[in-house]
Specification:
With 289 residues, the chain is of the alpha/beta class. Helix content is 51%, strand content 13%. The longest helix is centred in the last third of the chain and has 29 residues. The two termini are 36 Å apart. The relative contact order is 0.11.
């Protein structure tokens, strides 16, 4: 089966023109400059996306956005993406590739499996390129550069020309593709992405509870506290569906964190604490490489 060129994505629909969808649109301008990009979102986000050049045209409904599109990019919250899948499947062209950016994959891929049984091809995706802020104002054509991008496909699906073409496009954007199944993705994401978010929220709650009328300890905060609390700026709306659809993996991850905290507490006055620091230093260095 011949590989599909990225040039075959002539008409591209972006459903959700916030940070992720807007960034994808801006990146497309650079790598497929002749593509016609149709966006669908609520006002005023869709008009802001058009003003920034992330899309060429604003569709009035989902059907109008996806009809005739070669590539359909769903950059919506998990529940909204799942709710929209039946309509996308009804109106998508038989040769289209449909992909998403949702942070958990089991629920989305399971729902997609019920609606995409021929014709348009669904490919689960998750770019590890988010920010703690949301919206088209933060969109960046370089958002995916150097970022890990999970794609949910087995070896057979990877050979589909549409999937191969999309992977080639991501490589042009300098994203690092990681092929996974949905179960493995959700386990890994719970540890490396969802747990740090919840840990930041817990840390913020502790600091808030300990802050007195003088403003201490917040007024003593330095760069370390700000770095540790960066994720605490994420809005609940971004994380509600993640917590619901990956609660089993996230609960296990939180249990492991509690165990690690208990271990540190028992080692506060012993040299064994050094071992915890050594392991933490090793992980930190591995993430920087």
């Amino acid at each position: 089966m011949a590989e599909l060129s990225t040039a075959s994505f002539r008409r591209i629909a972006i459903l959700g023109t916030g940070l992720m969808g807007g960034s994808f649109g801006l990146a497309l301008r650079r790598y497929i400059p002749d593509a016609h990009i149709v966006g669908y979102d609520r006002e005023p986000a869709i008009e802001q996306a058009r003003a920034r050049g992330a899309i060429d045209e604003a569709a009035k409904d989902v059907a109008g956005a996806v009809r005739g599109a070669d590539l359909i990019y769903i950059a919506l919250p998990i529940s909204a993406a799942i709710e929209m899948l039946p309509e996308i499947a009804r109106h998508a062209a038989a040769g289209a590739l449909v992909t998403d950016t949702c942070s958990t994959k089991r629920a989305v891929c399971r729902a997609a499996g019920q609606h995409f049984r021929g014709g348009a091809k669904f490919l689960g995706g998750h770019p590890m390129a988010g920010k703690e802020t949301e919206g088209i104002a933060g969109a960046d054509a370089d958002l995916f550069r150097g970022a890990n991008y999970a794609l949910i496909a087995d070896e057979l699906a990877q050979k589909d020309p549409r999937v191969a073409g999309f992977a080639k496009l991501l490589e042009k954007m300098d994203a690092r593709i990681i092929w996974l199944d949905a179960e493995t993705h959700d386990w890994a994401a719970a540890i490396i992405s969802h747990l740090p978010q919840m840990a930041a929220i817990a840390l913020a709650e502790v600091i808030a509870a300990e802050t007195d009328e003088s403003g201490l300890p917040v007024t003593l905060a330095g760069k370390g506290a700000r770095d540790s609390l960066r994720l605490a700026g994420s809005p609940y709306a971004m994380w509600r569906d993640i917590a619901v659809t990956n609660s089993d993996n996230l609960s296990r991850a939180l249990d492991r964190l509690c165990q690690a905290i208990d271990q540190i507490r028992t080692h506060l006055t012993s040299r064994e604490l050094e071992e915890s620091f050594a392991e933490a230093n090793r992980i930190h260095k591995s993430l920087e490489s």
